[in-house]
Amino acid sequence: MIIKTAEFVKSAVKPDHYPVTGLPEIAFGGRSNVGKSSLINMLLNRKHLVKTSATPGRTQLINFFLINDAFSFVDLPGYGYAKVPESVRKSWGPMIETYLATRKTLKGVVLIMDLRRIPGLQEIHFIEWLHYYNIPNILTLTKADKLSKTNQMKQQLAIAKALSVAVDDLFVFSAKSRQGKDAVWDAIEQLLGVHQ
Ligand SMILES: Nc1nc2c(ncn2[C@@H]2O[C@H](COP(=O)(O)OP(=O)(O)OP(=O)(O)O)[C@@H](O)[C@H]2O)c(=O)[nH]1
Ligand SMILES: [Mg+2]
After folding, report:
1. pTM to 2 decimals?
2. Separation of 80 CA from ligand 1 center, angstroms?
3. What is the pLDDT of residues 77-87, one digit of tens each?
4. Which ligand is nearest to the CA of 142?
């Protein structure tokens, strides 16, 4: 994929505020601080398009980006960070579920997990939501650069087992080493129905 343009469009909380583009869309979700924004920046070859931070839980709105004037990427707020205010934590579920349930142009969700951590109920519930709404998923295990190749494989197997999916359904990725970039792009392009 050649990225000609990538621009921030707007932040939104509810459907009234979502941009009306009609273009196919891919959303990126996962636990707070897992590396969602870094993954998006790396896919787009932009260092700072999406804000990343050492402080977890910073992305609390649904952020829309327009790529090549052809499709959209959406950075979803992360879940599971204890320090965000209770009101924010409570609104997270409905905000994400409303987006998944109503966004007609949504072609798939890249669910990002930490390769070093066995996923828990939050990830399992997220995947169940996606199945319920018939939304294809791309299951990505990031921060691979923090593990040796042998341990990457071990964790990939353990996570596949925990999620009851095939090992080949998991994409091992790193925003730092760029490992897995082409494979994740291929999967995204398939869901978008574009080849550029
Ligand atoms: N080593 C390594 N660090 C990473 C990788 N991806 C992200 N990080 C680091 O992890 C931290 C969080 O990254 P973000 O991309 O901001 O994570 P996020 O999921 O968008 O976080 P929130 O928006 O706060 O929920 C930052 O310090 C990143 O530099 C990776 O592949 N490898
Ligand atoms: Mg973020």
Report:
1. 0.93
2. 15
3. 887 765 666 77
4. 1
